[in-house]
Amino acid sequence: MPHTDPHQWLENLDAPEVQAWVDGQNSKTHSLLDTDPRFAPLQAEILAHLQDTRQIPFFAEHGAWLYNFHQDDAHARGVYRRTSLDAYRAGAQDWDIVLDIDALAAADKEDWFLDGISHCTLTPSRVQVFLTRGGQDATVCREYDLVAQSWVEHGFDFPEGKSHIAWRDVDSAFVCPGWKGAPLTRAGYPREVWLVERAADGQHGWTQLFAAPKDAMMVAAWRYLDADGSVLDLIEASDSFYSKTYHLIDAQLATLALPLPPKAEIEGYLFGDLLVKLADDWVWQGASYAAGSLLAVALPALTPVPSPSGRGDKDAQLGRVQVLVAPAAKRSIDSVETTRASLVVNLIDNVKSRLLAFDKVEGVWCERALPVADSGVIEFADQPWDSDIICYSFSDFLTPTGLYRLNVATGEQEVLRAQPAAFDASAFVAEQRHALAGDGTAIPYFVVRGKDTVLDGNTPTLMYGYGGFEVSMLPYYIENFGPHWLEKGGAFVLACIRGGGEFGPAWHQAAQGPRRAVSFGDFIAVAEDLIAHGLTSPRRLGIEGGSNGGLLVGACMVRRPELFNAVVCEVPLLDMLRYTELLAGASWIDEYGDPDDETERAALAAYSPYHHVQADADYPLALFTTSAKDDRVHPGHARKMVARLAELGHDALLLETAGGGHSGNAAQAQTAEELARVLVYLYRQLMD
Q1: Which pTM value belongs to this model?
Q2: Residues noted as catalytic
Q3: Of the candidates 551, 563, 567, 351, which has an alpha carbon nearest to the alpha carbon of residue 462?
Q4: Its domain of life (predicted)?
């Protein structure tokens, strides 16, 4: 492996010579894909589907209004709009626009996109509007009045940065500054927590509540409103991606450390209990609690006790601990939501969802089942404040998404909206299968294919994976790949490899840090299983992944290039020896390891895709995508990989967009173009 990096110059985000190189690569990719006669009609069909008014407008309910962010041909950047529940039920389209991002961008002469809107819970007409230039993670925060439909004079406005800002009440906010000049961590995230209190003249009062060391990862703060009207103010101080401490803020604005284990996540607060999910085993007051458990931890009155931690603050007391959900071999906790009277847990059981409700009766939480479908995937969509309502979506690969409104107290529910079918699913089947990894572990994966598919190795097959950060890969309605891939004779595969969260913390930790290559081996095992069963062959098999999934497919390409004929590597990490020096990379040391540590560097060097490109290998023509506005995963990863391949005599394609950022926050036309190019690339590599 080279000791110097001849392509490091491509990490420069401002140099004209770098932009000229990127322009040349984009021109090459466009000339190949955009001139394909399938591109233009495909882009138009995808865009028409995105703008179909029958698509479900997901919403957040605040007071008497349902709020929705909407993009269409007339509103490329989008509008924030609202309607009543009765009008929504009736399917009426009489939305009232309360904020127009296109008009705002034009007035400000800025490349604004909406990153999010946060309503003040008890005064929901006041909102924090988070605006991003070109889709990057850094945002500008402005306060907006939805009644006056104007910006609040001398409001809570904060400059551009990766800040964390949350309402405390209508006249105060928790602010963790991430803008230029503020104290930041090595990863570029906030280190300090401030309480900012409103002043009529805009000279708001600032009180510092907490400061983390520079080698921490980040801090955040927010307020929980309990069902009885009491409040709980909380600071989360992340030492690393998975290790954190929690600190309560008392009435005198002093902090009280919670004696929870470092790898625990507070998921909610209800009836005086913290709802805590464990990633490691925990021994507390003589009892043991297993990793993967969900606990209800009583929080007595905030009486400080001396802290053994030496952190400078005091420890809060904890009371009774009750196990709500215990870990099981093929089960994990996907998400937790609280209503006015109940706790609702979304469980992933053998990669399918089911909901459990818990009610507190005489101090003890009691479990009950909820009458919802359990054959697909549920995602919480909304929980209106001070109600027993939960809105959730349900879908699977072949079932269009439905939006449901469930009364958790009574069990009554209604279908609010159903997404129109994008294709006729009757001709297809979705199957769950298992491949055996090298160590004998069964790796689940899903195959979606035609019912009459002949197992002769000739089916064009796209395999998708992620395998990191305890993120689960779950079935979802393949609304674009249905008509544009399945109906053309292709198959789609979703691999649930280790590193993800499908089966809880142990499934993730099996491929964490120096064990990262386990996820690559699992992915390759699924590919080999598909070939062994005759679904496809290396000539017809392609792989796709983004971000950490980009690392996955990049690593598998350089390890086993003979297995694949297409690689779609999106916003990827690829240089694992420099990733901590690039943008937010240092925040992921917990996940990958530290290249400044000799032992961990050796493990990273053993698989870093950028460093394992070989001159004598026969790689497929791969497509690498990134964004100049990606301020999370540096575009230098994709750029340098393409340059390294070319240096050693291999062809590759780069598509770098000017906007969109890491999450693809862009106009629908750009989204449609990017997906159309990926599909045309897959047609050329796997179907033609």
Answers
A1: 0.94
A2: 547, 662
A3: 567
A4: Bacteria
